[in-house]
Amino acid sequence: MPGATHVVILEGINDIGKVRNPADWQPPAEKLIAAYEQLLARAKSRGLKVIFGTLLPYKGAAYADDAGEQRRATVNGWMRANRARFDGLIDFDTAMGEPGDPATMRLSWQIGDHLHPNDAGYTTMAKTAFPVIRAQGCR
């Protein structure tokens, strides 16, 4: 986009959930992290400030499983461990977790499928993102 100065990268959870057809491939966390590395390098090469958002909780979703949760935790852990390489990190995972069960999206902030925030959830996400984005001088 002409004139862009910043990019916020928030990946959905679809690449992590289990699949019904065994022929469908589930990328390991290392492949997902490699894709994030590629996005980071491409954005930085264009002079963009890069802000990553952690993957949201999804326990209870129809395609949630332990292997997917492990991939999600690994990717989020990589983001947190590498935050100094980014211009910002929005911790949606922590902000949206259910108290006492942080792998589940807060029940009052989702539409009931454990994947999609409702209006209150998106408001929380915006309030979580705003100070990180603002700190980078994005207007």
What does it look like?
The chain has helices at residues 29-45, 66-81, 92-96, 119-135, and strands spanning 6-9, 49-53, 88-90, 97-98, 101-105. With 139 residues, it is of the alpha/beta class. It is globular and about 40 Å long. The chain contains four helices and five strands. The longest helix is centred in the first third of the chain and has 17 residues, at 29-45. Helix content is 40%, strand content 14%.
Q: Which regions have little confidence, pLDDT < 50, spanning 5+ residues?
A: none
Give the overall pLDDT as a whole number.
Answer: 92
Instruction: Profile the largest sheet.
Output: 3 strands, parallel
Which term fits the overall shape? globular
Tell me the layout of helices and strands.
Layout (H helix, E strand, L loop, with lengths): L5 E4 L19 H17 L3 E5 L12 H16 L6 E3 L1 H5 E2 L2 E5 L13 H17 L4
Helix pairs in contact: 1-2
Descriptive keywords:
globular; two-stranded antiparallel sheet; alpha/beta; single chain
Give the gist of this structure.
The protein has helices at residues 29-45, 66-81, 92-96, 119-135; strands spanning 6-9, 49-53, 88-90, 97-98, 101-105.
